[in-house]
Structure to design on (309 residues):
């Protein structure tokens, strides 16, 4: 088993691509896994916390002020600016505009710490941005809800955010506890095995998240292409912008760029009415593509911007 996990760790990017392809080429498996997504997300968080350990996470939490400021900027200021710009252009009522605003308002994805590990960024600081961003989401989302009443009842969205925060805290606590008990001083081989376990969990989650894409490709190929282009543009332009602005502060720039371009838009789905939900589900599926391909397509960009290459 250890050799298998070492193999997965050594070919992490290939396994992420395999996860995306599995979701596209095996729609039956993706549909079967989809109902298990909440449990899979919890397992992913637990394995991630097990990999980085509580010491690395706590070491990055010392500067809470910058984490709170980042959450307010990324999750409240940015969507309000986007709404204002779209309103000036007369596009605020379009479905694409709704997807953009919701993406900007969402906290970072639960798998962002895995992305940080794959890109050799500060995973502890990434965990801080994940926890603080999710904890502040019920506050930062309120102005967006006032601007977009079609999202439904504010209480529903906030309740979903609190449930997600609870899952993150419980899963992280379990992972940190297991790390303290079984891997207090892990060897290099154990670290590689934990990396492999984390990549496997991430790849299986990708399969489930792609469940909506293959059926849409068969019936609405042009729509899928359009949503995919929008998803790549939002994700990669956001990451590039943060890296350009903060390139002189490498420690903060990497995790912040990942947080900006990899958002958990699925948190809104519980509150959206069916007529809004249908087209956005295709976008949610397409949104996985730039995120899961970030470790494959953007490592040179991160290395160059952060002075590592």
């Amino acid at each position: 088993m250890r050799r298998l996990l070492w193999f997965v760790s050594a070919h992490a990017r290939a396994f992420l691509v395999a996860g995306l392809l599995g979701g596209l080429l095996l729609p039956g498996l993706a549909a079967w896994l989809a109902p298990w997504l909440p449990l899979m997300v919890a397992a992913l968080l637990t394995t991630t916390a097990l990999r980085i350990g509580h010491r690395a996470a706590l070491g990055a939490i010392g500067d809470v002020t910058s984490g709170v400021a980042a959450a307010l900027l990324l999750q409240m200021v940015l969507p309000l600016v986007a709404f204002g710009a779209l309103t000036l252009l007369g596009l605020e009522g379009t479905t694409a505009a709704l997807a953009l605003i919701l993406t900007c308002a969402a906290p970072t994805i639960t798998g962002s710490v895995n992305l940080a590990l794959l890109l050799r960024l500060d995973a502890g600081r990434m965990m801080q941005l994940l926890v603080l961003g999710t904890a502040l989401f019920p506050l930062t989302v309120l102005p967006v809800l006032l601007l977009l009443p079609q999202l439904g009842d504010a209480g529903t969205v906030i309740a979903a955010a609190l449930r997600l925060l609870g899952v993150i805290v419980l899963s992280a606590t379990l992972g940190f506890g297991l790390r303290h008990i079984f891997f207090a001083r892990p060897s290099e081989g154990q670290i590689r095995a934990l990396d492999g376990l984390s990549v496997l969990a991430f790849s299986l989650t990708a399969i489930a998240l792609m469940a909506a894409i293959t059926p849409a490709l068969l019936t609405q190929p042009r729509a899928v292409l359009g949503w995919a282009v929008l998803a790549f543009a939002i994700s990669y332009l956001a990451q590039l912008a943060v890296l350009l602005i903060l390139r002189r502060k490498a420690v903060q720039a990497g995790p912040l760029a990942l947080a900006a371009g990899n958002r958990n838009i699925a948190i809104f789905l519980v509150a959206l009415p069916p007529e809004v939900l249908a087209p956005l589900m295709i976008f949610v599926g397409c949104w996985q593509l730039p995120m899961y391909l970030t470790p494959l397509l953007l490592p040179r960009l991160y290395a160059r911007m952060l002075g590592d290459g």
User: Anything to note?
Assistant: The mean pLDDT is 82. The radius of gyration is 19 Å.
